Every structure is written in C-alpha cells, then in structure tokens.
Please model this.
Amino acid sequence: MSKKGRILMAMSGGIDSSVAAMMLHDEGYEVIGITMKTWDYASSGTSGKETGCCSLDSINDARSIAVQKGFPHYILDIRGEFGDFVIDNFVDEYLGGRTPNPCVLCNTHIKWSALIKRADMLDCEFIATGHYASVREENGRYVVSRGLDTSKDQSYVLWGLSQSSLARTKFPLGKFKKTEIRNMAMEMGFKELANKSESYEICFIPDNDYRAFLKKRVDGIEDKLDGGTFINTKGEVIGKHKGYPFYTIGQRKGLEVAFGKPMFVVKIKPESNTVVLGEYDDLQRTTMSVRGLNLVKYNHLNDETEALTKIRYKDPGTISTVKQTGDETAEVIFHAPVHAIAPGQSAVFYEGNDVLGGGFIEKEK
Model:
C-alpha cells in the first residue's frame, strides 16, 4: 500500500472524475476506480441516444483511464437499490404535488452508502468523487464548502451527507476551476477527454422529459388526471389541464391555454387535481418550512441563525433567518421576497462559503 493510503474513486467516465482519479494517482494514493450503474437506460422508455453516467460508453471510458494509469477498476451494479428508493420517491413526490430532488436523495442515501460499503470491502480508508466542493475538519465537525469555481460549485447537492460519510470523503477538484481541469486533461495526453461534453440531465431521464417518464411508470395516469382545472388566485376556474403532476411551481411555458398575459403555476393541489395560476408577483414569498434537516457545520442552530439560503441549484441565494424548530425541521424567514419556492426542492443554508446544512422544502407560506 502507498504511503498516502488506498482510496476508492467514483468514476463516471466524464472529465471531472477521470482527472480527479489521475490527480490522486499522481499524488501517491493507491487508487481503485469504481463506476456505479444506477439505471438501465433501456427501461426508461425515453428516446434518443444513450448518454450519461450509466451508458456503456461512459463505463468503458472510466475503465480505459484506469487501465492507462495502471490501477484497478470495478463496475458496481446498484440498479436495484437505486430504483426502489430514488425512483419511487421521484414518482411519489410528483404525485404529491411536489418537485423532487433525486440527485440529492441519491447522494445522501445511495451513492455514499454504496461507496463506503465497497471501500470497507476493499480496505480503502477514503472515498473520492469529482464534485466541485471541499471538505475539512473544524471543531470536531466535517464541513462542506463551496468549490473555488463558483460556476461549477456542487456543494448544494451535498448537504445531506452524514458526518461519518464526510469524514472519509475527499473532493480533489474543490480548489480548481473547470478550465484548469480541462487543461490538465490535455497536458496528461487525454485530448478527447478534455473536449468531452457534459451531461446535466437526471441519469434516468436522459431526454429531460420527466412527464413521459411518469406516464410510463404510472399506469393510466393520463386517463385518471386529464381534465383537471386551472384556477386563478381568486378560486375561479380559468381552464383545463393535463394532470397536476405534469406542472411545477413557477412554470409559465407549456400551459396550453391563452390568457392574454403571462401566467405562472403558483400552487398545486393534488387532492382536487387543481393547479393555481397567477401573475409573477403571486410567486413572491418570504417564509417557508423545511423537513429532513441535516446539519453540517454545527450540531445545532441558534434560535435565529442568519444564513444565505438557496432554494434551487442555480439560485444565487437570499439572506434569511433560519430557526430550528425540531431535530429535523426548521423555519426560514427571508429578508427579501424570493421567487417560486417549490416544495420538494432542497433548501441549503450557507455561512460564507460553508454549508451550514439543508433540508427539503415542506411548504411555502
């Protein structure tokens, strides 16, 4: 074993995890690569070319890097546990009138658990991924913080990781910008890898059509829910829709009804198959509640903790007061109105660049 120890590297076949693996290898770690197959593309019912982390090409790309650098590589099939948990939650959330966050759920409950389990089997002290984020130990806690490249920062999707998971995790790319990673790939002689396009889709919906996915997964969903009503904020019926799960908070396009002015989805009522539409200002909120709270930097929040709260991945964040109301619940009061709070999405709290913690949005108020 090398002086730096043995590390299990999650490799998707993309540029980020591939360069991270090579960096760790060159730093002196005994690297073992592992590619997780989370989803069977053929069963998704989607159209188009197979892409993303679960494709055969991606698996072969990851293996090729390992072979060229001289370290072992394994394929880990976790389709069963992924499907039962992540897919079922994804469907249930939409049927509950919420907008799910499958990548956060997968990181928290599936990928890290699978990685650490295999790390133990392979006698690896650490695991590593290609996320643009950093982790450090401070005051007895393991703290996640933003990656240096703010345009690529992925700390938002890591809020759910436990302290025991973070204690064994390394993020080699946290101190680099994406342009530097591409240059490294070129300098290492991997020109094709450096120019490889990135995939931003949910792995089990490679064509980004979640509505088609729901139709395939839920028998008769169209027949059962077609013909629901659009109502305005006064409760007046103003049209018919295709079924409440096919709409998300803040949606403007695809309503298929002409109103003479821009209208947005402001609320979803699954119990009555009703979608409430309103104008832009009707989406402004100042308060929300959070469930499934996981704290990262501290083991408890003060009664009135001030934090920058992000309500979606690309949200720049809004200063807020976060009040912990229970072991896994909190109330967030924004210091300025925020737009289109969607129940089911993640709320992540920051203190500077550090992740204080996060949770799932329960409801806006």
